[in-house]
Amino acid sequence: MTEKIVRTDEQWKELLTPEQYYVLRQQGTERPYANQFDRHFEEGVYCCAGCGQELFPAETKFHSGCGWPAFYAAKAGDRVTLLPDDSHGMFRTEVRCARCDSHLGHIFDDAPQTPTGQRYCINSVALTFTSTRPPESPTKQPDNQGQS
Can you list the domains of the chain with their CATH numbers? Predict the structure, then answer.
């Protein structure tokens, strides 16, 4: 794992949008179904919006119907930290970025259709996306030299 990133609260406020700050630093939750990556399926990798660390490969993303992006595995076990969360009268397991300690979402053992049986339910604003799809080649123009 790479070196830990530590920033002051003021530095986080300058770096993040208000919604990102609310989710990543104050353990908030964005609205379900009305977010950037819930129905986003493209080749690539999802990274932490706080520090850029690669977290979830697109191959592990699936449509769970929960309203947030769902993944069945992190890129590597050391990329995320799992912590007990008993807030809001529920017992859940919180998912944080291991590099910058940003709140990402929660993990649940309720996805029997996946290879791990797990569902990482992650806030879109906690993520950025980098496509790994090769760029499309420009269409080759016919060679009309020497023709009249």
Answer: 9-131 (2.170.150.20)
